[in-house]
# Entry
Amino acid sequence: MYPLGATWDGNGVNFALFSRHATAVELCLFDAETGLETHRIPVREHTAWIWHTYVPGLAPGQRYGYRVHGPHDPGEGHRFNPAKLLLDPYAKALDGPLEWSDRVFGYRVGDPGEDLSLDPRDSAPVMPRCVVTDAAYDWEGVESPRIPWHETVLYEAHVKGMTARHPEVPEELRGTFAGMAHPAVIGHLKELGVTTVELMPIHYFVDERHLVERGLRNYWGYNSIGFFAPDCRYGTGDDPADYIRQFRDMVKAYHREGMEIVLDVVYNHTAEGNQLGPTLSFRGIDNRAYYRLSEEDRRYYVDYTGCGNTLNMLQPRVVQGIMDSLRYWVGDMGVDGFRFDLAPALAREFYDVNMLSTFLQIVQQDPLLAETKLIAEPWDVGPGGYQVGNFPPGWVEWNGKYRNTMRDYWRGEEARLGEFALRLTGSSDLYQGSSRNPSASVNLVTVHDGFTLHDLVSYNEKHNEANGWDNTDGTDDNRSWNCGVEGPTSDPDILELRARQRRNLMATLLLSQGVPLILGGDELGRTQGGNNNAYCQDNEISWLDWENPDEAFLAFTRDLVRFRKNHPVFRHRRWPSNRFTPPDEDAISWYGPSGEGMSEEDWEVGHARSVAMFLSGDAFPSTGPRGQRIEDDSFLVFFNADVDAVRFVIPESLPAERWECCIDTATGVVGPAGESEGYLSLGPGGELDVGGRSLRVFRRV
# Structure
């Protein structure tokens, strides 16, 4: 009966499948060469809603699938149709892509009332096959580096986009796990200072039919149907089981270099869509158990994801399936953590998001998962779905408020400086009260779903025409960055302003308390031509251009990451004392351009654009793993989002005659302490000019 899925023991294979409402289950075996069905075996053992059978003599490489019998009553949520070959939700490997055809739908496409009808055609000729695998693998003693959160630098990458155009990666490896593991790719990330690569979805997923018919693909991969199987498009060769080894080889290669792999996982919905979607797996195995259905009419699905369906987290076996998947990717595949897409959908119980939900409690107490990185995308599209700051201890969150605040500040929107200061120092208003530390905030400016950093400061409007939706898809609001003409230009003043704004945003990201997340390719100056929803663009719109990098910005970003690593005051492990009123001996204190400490009123002024932050190395809290004190220098950081230069006065409370300029976004210079030439002899009351739309960092010497 357990474990679920197909398990080879050296003599044969045990098959186990959960279905609460099925009346019969058939195991279908297929020839690997011809693809033809060779045996159809009735599954007679039925224990606690687990249908199981042992078949002696079978071995790894065996292709299989299921046909499940039961009531066909869409109004009651039952959509059984034994004519449809179904994928095992626990399959570790899947052979080939889905071939779209009306055969994969459980109903007769085009009939009146469509989904209420029953289609008798066999879907096996166009369906992928599940593959029995061997779990053995030699990790050669290589283990996870287990990088602490306060030392983590995240990098969001796409397996194909990262390698498809890389000139040093052999052509046959581009777009694959083996390509991601190539020394040229790993070397770039290591030199950049990345510690943890967050891979966009690699679970087996499906290209939607409407995209395929228009010559497009689901490039991002947020359309999973196999939560245990790596997608075949990222493997090399013809053996699906070998893709498992290639994935493990990739993880091992990163671990050898002291880097981590985190997976972006999509457990909130599946590729079967709403009532008009195909029958590929869960729907045909037990629609009513696996999916959230409308209480008013079980024909329809509850959709908290915007993708047509939501997995039913009220069903223990569904929760078990997700937990088994997570444990498999950690225990067998070696990954270091997960970013959960639309995570509140997993925490919904009857209606509302519940941070004491069964799923979150199980994850928190699991001894294997407790040692991994757990990252929530803390919003879904259902009511009350925006949950930034509400996840429990043990979780970190993509901080959407950080993204909005930093964008607004640098483009000159009316906003409170107090909000800017809160986000810059770790968002204590969101995380401190729940016993989490600043690392609970994953700080981001750009990620896959939106503009790249280059495009963010170059376009006021989206340009998604290539997606085929008449530019109606994607988010509308980018607002003006006051960077002159939109899109490509040769005007040197506009190009310099855009470059400065990119430097401002990247510098702010890497000087903020919390965990920085860099969008893959931003360091190279990647553009998508203004497309802010390139989910279906598996082409040069999305792929990184390695042959035409912005070398100056790449060097600037590398130097910033190194600067952050060298100075712990920019990455506190615990909450620093953070004085928002006139300063004393706090680790972080704030000043207006006049040199006076900020008052409560100063923080609320909507048109204020300039502020100085002092980080005290003397008041820096102990940060070592055993409580030992870690020393650092003291820094004064000047932020000026105003169009014009602003003159700052050195505060009277900061006795120093000499300051060293370490970072200046107006010039693009990052000089590690002791190497720059920007020394100033300024005592208290001295004056310093900070250029329009720029920031400067000075070290006290």
In short: Residues 574-700 form a domain with the Immunoglobulin-like fold (CATH 2.60.40.1180).
